[in-house]
Write a structure and sequence with these properties.
228 residues; alpha/beta; Rossmann fold; Arc Repressor Mutant, subunit A; 2 domains; 5-stranded parallel beta sheet; 4-stranded antiparallel beta sheet; 8 helices; 12 strands; elongated; binds calcium ion
């Protein structure tokens, strides 16, 4: 099964061209023609990438982008006739992964889609949920779901996991983790961190190593690594 792409574009002809090219490139493509439909589709199909037109009837692309970013770090490529640098920078600052100006060449769009999907996941500070392969972390609800099943943790372990997952691919020393996660007045030792990590790893044992892992860095500490 190809990766899922949601094309949000009110001009039917453009949407059809994109759908045809992306389908030919092996993607599963769904389309939405206005803002409300875009959000509905986003929720239902959980796409791997969104191609988003900015000028839409009703709810515009900016507000859709904001809504997507609140919920996930799914890559978004903005598609618009507005070619000014100012618009482009605004899009990138608001959480877009790339930007394509109309009129575009459909083959170039396919190439950009391929390129964005090859990148390591972008981390958006404000996203309330993150998906690392089959592991989904909801920071607002404080839940961790693996292959669709919610995992349970004791509060101290959950706090540690949420902290590490907020800062993927960063190395932390044990003292740093104690201070940042459990607080200065916590009277635990480095050993407490090791034990918590051990329990977290056990809970995440079915998380494929190709997607990510909690790594021990000898002489340093721990790192929550994500590979997709
Ligand atoms: Ca439009």
């Amino acid at each position: 099964m190809g990766k899922k792409i949601l094309v949000v574009e009110d001009e039917t002809a453009i949407a059809r061209v994109l759908q045809a090219y992306l389908t030919k490139a092996g993607y599963q493509v769904e389309t939405a023609f206005d803002g409300d439909e875009a959000i509905r589709q986003f929720t239902t199909i959980q796409p791997d990438l969104v191609l988003l037109d900015l000028m839409l009837p009703g709810r515009d692309g900016w507000s859709i982008l904001q809504e997507i970013r609140r919920r996930s770090s799914c890559p978004v490529i903005i598609l618009t006739a507005l070619g000014q640098t100012k618009e482009k920078l605004a899009g990138l600052n608001r959480g877009a992964d790339d930007y394509i100006t109309k009129p575009f060449n459909a083959e170039e769009v396919v190439a950009r889609v391929n390129a964005v999907l090859r990148r390591p996941p972008q981390i958006w500070e404000h996203a309330e949920t993150r998906q690392y392969g089959s592991l989904k972390i909801d920071f607002a609800a404080r839940t961790v779901t693996l292959h669709g099943t919610e995992l349970s943790f004791i509060p101290r372990d959950l706090a540690l996991l949420l902290f590490l997952a907020r800062h993927p691919n960063q190395a932390f020393r044990r003292e740093q983790l104690i201070e940042e996660v459990w607080g200065l007045d916590y009277e635990g030792s480095d050993r407490a961190v090791d034990l918590a990590i051990k329990r977290i790893r056990k809970a995440l044992q079915n998380w494929p190593k190709t997607e990510g892992e909690v790594k021990t860095l000898r002489g340093v500490g721990y790192q929550f690594c994500v590979y997709r």
